[in-house]
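During the no-cost extension, the postdoctoral fellow (Dr. R.K.) reprocessed legacy sequence entries with the updated structure-token encoder. One reprocessed record is reproduced below for audit purposes.
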Amino acid sequence: AEAFVARNGFVVQGAGSGQFQVMNRGGISAANAWCAAGDYAMGVLGVAPATPVFRISEPPTPRGANIVFSLSGAGAASSTGLATIGGSGGASMTAVAARNMCNALMAPGGRR
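Re-encoded structure tokens follow.
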């Protein structure tokens, strides 16, 4: 399968078994990984905005490791890896919420 370059510049590739991974090129944050995962899920897989996307790789991600996601909750991690206030916990967010992480990262003063 072809590699997909998300709007934040991170590469996403299929990982088999319905999973896909955001390739770590150094300095990857959970927000960058979610941005790329959401962009891939909606742009390549064509999922509806409300479709849940699950983080499979348990945070924190070891240095240099790719971050694996899936549209299935089987084997999901214990958390998203993002700091949330009043969140319900869990390891998923909707595809559109994940993709919207790109907007925050690219806003003036955002981290890229």
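DSSP finds two helices and six strands in the chain. The beta strands are 4-5, 11-16, 19-22, 52-55, 67-70, 92-94. The remaining legacy entries will be reprocessed before the final report is submitted.
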